[in-house]
Design brief:
Arc Repressor Mutant, subunit A; single chain; Beta-Lactamase; alpha+beta; 250 residues; two-stranded antiparallel ribbon
Length: 250
């Protein structure tokens, strides 16, 4: 097992001290150092790093340190992810009713997408997938939808890490092709996986973005290509509408 980073451990201890020990007046560097059992110079350096990162600030009157609301924002985002299937459920049901095809809800997990909810089509020839299953981002409508809504710098960094091993003859094989596809997805509001992940299966996806502009996941409609090919645009618009409605509840 890799040894833990000592500086990070100490920084988290300072963060916990500010969260757990500070009253309305905050904590001084000396108090932080005593709580975390650090010398004053190290405590000062760590708390200033937290300030530079937006997690803490120094009261200009008292010179004491306090936490900002950034941790609350992170906690709120985490709660949204935990509650996403419940919030999305009525919109997923509506989308399945409108399209009669299989509907998925997925979130990013490192460089892949994981299904966290699924509603099966009632039509003949169904999609073989399961909640908890992970799929490559670059071959799936869910993944490409998430990529299309990510901040440019985060997306660019992730694209350089993706393993673009093709899954079918239609899979995109280069970062340049994937960038172009993502840009098309962004312009029209939905992404398309046309037999890129599985032969004879076509999927359409749209990103879920909350009120803070954060992409929390994506939804998709999947079906056999022979049923999907002539209604991709119509389904894409319905998918984008459902994703926007989910985002509006967050």
């Amino acid at each position: 097992m890799t040894a833990p980073t000592r500086t990070l451990q100490r920084g988290l201890q300072v963060l916990e001290a500010l969260a757990g020990e500070a009253d309305d007046d905050g904590l001084s560097v000396s108090e932080i150092a005593a709580i975390v059992d650090l010398d004053k110079a190290t405590a000062n350096r760590l708390v200033r790093t937290l300030c530079q990162s937006g997690y803490a600030y120094q009261d200009p009157k008292t010179r004491q340190y306090k936490l900002t609301g950034k941790l609350l924002a992170l906690g709120s985002s985490h709660r949204e992810n935990l509650d996403l299937p419940g919030r999305a459920a009525p919109f997923l049901a509506r989308l399945r009713g409108e399209t009669e095809e299989t509907v998925h809800l997925g979130v990013r997990e490192l460089d892949r997408v994981v299904y966290i909810a699924k509603l099966d089509s009632q039509l003949p020839v169904q999609i073989a997938s399961a909640i908890g299953q992970t799929m490559p981002m670059h071959t799936t409508a869910l993944g490409k939808a998430i990529l299309s809504a990510m901040p440019d710098d985060q997306r660019d960094a992730l694209l350089e890490q993706l393993d673009l091993t093709p899954r079918t003859e239609n899979s995109l094989r280069s970062v340049a092709d994937l960038r172009a596809d993502i840009e098309r997805s962004r312009r029209r509001g939905y992404s398309v996986d046309d037999r890129e992940n599985e032969d004879s299966i076509t999927c359409v996806g749209a990103p879920i973005v909350n009120g803070l502009g954060e992409v929390l996941g994506a939804i998709s409609v999947s079906g056999p290509t022979f049923r999907m090919k002539d209604q991709i645009e119509a389904i894409g618009e319905k998918c984008a509408k459902a994703a926007a409605d989910i985002g509006a509840t967050l």
